[in-house]
Amino acid sequence: MSVRPIIKYPDQVLRQKAKTVPVVDKSIKTLIDDMIETMKAGSGCGLAAPQVGVSLRCIVLGMPEEEPFAIINPEFVKRVGEREIEEGCLSVPDLGGHVKRSISVIVKGLDRQGKPIRVRGKELLCQALEHEIDHLNGVLFIDRVESPDKLFKKEKPVEVEAKDAAADLAASQ
Description:
single chain; 4 helices; Peptide Deformylase; three-stranded antiparallel sheet
């Protein structure tokens, strides 16, 4: 398992429709393991294969305090309701925005063994499923922001700012 570089917007792989995974073999299982490690390293709750430069229909999800899992060739079976939420993306690290997402979804696909699965998602899992499946279709959350006033620049985390301030102070002495 290894952490792969996360592809950043405006790289064109993020805008392509990903290809169907024809067979779940060792290379797909390695991809899944690497994606889970990459997602954890980036402190994300989901990651799509195009975000690591692989244009295949594979996503991984890792909800807080739950074991991460993969869905290969995911498809929506059902979407219910609508809500507006704040969203960000590891591939668009400097921006956040308010987007409309479903209240709940049901997604079908294959697990890492190639067996059929169905996943019901509400709240964060629902949001992550929609966000990651969007990636497989070449859609980014910034495409779902209704107007520029619903997009915002993310602030650096406090620890990074403190580190920067310490470096500036050391350089001035």
